[in-house]
Write a structure and sequence with these properties.
The protein is mostly helical. The protein has helices at about 5-10, 15-45, 60-70. Helix 2 crosses helix 3.
Length: about 80
C-alpha cells in the first residue's frame, strides 16, 4: 500500500479523479526528466569511451515519487475556477 492515503491527498476540494490526473501528469514529468538524464549520460559515454559511469536505477518509481511530491506540496493541484 502506498502512503499517504487517498483521504490525505484529496483534501481541499480535490476528488479522486483530479488526484489521479495530477499524479499521472506529475509522474510523466518525472519520467521525462529521467529519460533526459539517461540520454545525456549515453551521449557522454559515446564521446568519452574510457569514462566509467555507474548505472544508477531510479530509487523510486515515478508514480510513487509523484504521490510523495503531491503530499509534500512540492507539486500543487490547481483547481479550476467556478463560474
Amino acid at each position: 500500500m502506498i502512503y499517504p492515503s487517498i483521504q490525505e491527498l484529496s483534501d481541499e476540494g480535490v476528488n479522486r479523479y483530479m488526484l489521479s490526473i495530477a499524479t499521472a501528469k506529475c509522474a510523466r514529468k518525472i519520467t521525462t526528466r529521467q529519460l533526459e538524464k539517461a540520454q545525456e549520460i549515453a551521449q557522454e559515454m559515446k564521446e568519452d569511451k574510457f569514462s566509467s559511469y555507474k548505472k544508477q536505477a531510479p530509487l523510486e518509481k515515478p508514480v510513487k515519487e509523484a504521490i510523495e511530491k503531491l503530499h509534500s506540496r512540492e507539486f500543487k493541484i490547481i483547481l479550476p475556477k467556478e463560474e
